[in-house]
Amino acid sequence: MNRTLAVIASLALFATTAIAGDRARDRDRVNASDPIGFKLELEASGSRFQLSLSMGRDSKSSTQLGASQLGLDSNALDRSGPVRFTLAREPGRLDCAGDTAKRIATGDCTFTPATEFSRYLAGRGIGTPSFGQSFDLTLVGADKALVDALADAKYPRPTIDQLVALAALKATPAYIADLAGQGFRPDDLDDLIAFAALKIDGNYAGAMLRAGLGNLTAKELIEMKAVGVDPDFLAGLKHAGLRKVTADDAVQLRAIGVDPAYVRDIIQLGYPDITADKLTEMRAVGVTANDIRRARKAGIVDPSPDQIVQFRVLRR
Q1: CA angle at 61 for the pair 55 and 65, rounded to the nearest 5°
Q2: Among 69, 211, 224, 262, which one has the highest count of C-beta atoms within 10 angstroms of its own C-beta?
Q3: Cα 229 from Cα 263, distance rounded (Å)
């Protein structure tokens, strides 16, 4: 049994982390002359605004913002008529004007990149952002503090698209410091982006490092979190009687649907030395405790895990 299911799960999750980077690359197809349209409405909770922007022919984006971030009050959309607001952040400034009707505001915006921030990124060796990249950096709230935090934690120098992705996923300086405080740091920024997307924080990383799996790599943590492996799952496997579990084993077991109850049932039927690989093979073909009982009733004395797998396959 290979790790196909786990890899698929982690790749599918990682694909979601590329959205911010893809958006930045899409932004390169637009320029300062392209019109920017907006729609502003309250979220269902009524506590934040949903700002949707269209730029150029195919580029669209959406972000959630508090009223104070736009210079509005929470009742700004209750009144029909003209509306103006500004989103000002380190990478640039978005000025919008339009009209409100039925608690939805629509209109047009202009965007002005911040020259000082562009110079800052260039001076740090990251590069000078394009108009579209400055736009994305502004929307996701990237700032100097994030760049400094990455440098302080000794990460490789980020690309602009990586900054967009990290800021979009709320990888704040506090989040970066939290991971470092647990004595763990991904080796590269792509792994850090996956950490942020999966919400792998210092508590999870620290608990998994103490869970008896030995030294773990960032990619092992990513795979385990992607399929739902946590300290409780590992403790359950141990309590059920599974004597040895590696990180790879845990990913396979969780991905294929082997839980502590399944392990306990198999072990109690006379397989105290069953391995994670055999459990994975058995679960993959649908072996249950009843299959083992049926095999014995059929005259197979002390069937091995391989015989049980064959028995199940033949009964399909």
Answers
A1: 120
A2: 224
A3: 15
Place of tokens 């039925």: 102
For the four alpha carbons of 286, 290, 295 and 301, in that order, the dihedral sign comes to positive
pLDDT at 46 > cutoff 80: no
Give the model confidence (pLDDT) of 243-296 as tens digits.
899 999 999 999 999 999 999 999 999 999 999 999 999 999 999 999 999 999
**Distances, alpha carbon 191 to alpha carbons 6, 29, 58, in Å:** 16, 27, 29
SS3 15: helix
| Strands laid side by side in the 36-42 sheet | 59-65, 49-55, 36-42, 104-113, 92-101, 81-89
Q: How far apart are CA 36 and CA 30, in angstroms?
A: 10
User: What's the whole-model pTM score?
Assistant: 0.85
Confidence at residue 162, expressed as pLDDT on a 0 to 100 scale: 96
Domain ranges of the chain: 19-196, 228-314
pLDDT in tens, 149-161: 999 999 999 999 9
Residue 233 scores a pLDDT above 80: yes
Task: Transcribe 35-89 into DSSP letters.
Answer: -EEEEEEE-TTSSSEEEEEEETTTEEEEEEE-GGGGT--TTGGGS-EEEEEEEEE
Contact 62, 49 (CB under 8 A): no
Any idea what DSSP says for residue 126? S
Average pLDDT, the chain: 89
CA distance 154 to 150: 6
Structure tokens at 143: 């700032």
For residue 12, what pLDDT band results from cuts at 50, 70 and 90?
Answer: very low
User: DSSP 3-state assignment of 301?
Assistant: coil
Closest to 259 (Cα-Cα) out of 292, 285, 224, 235: 235
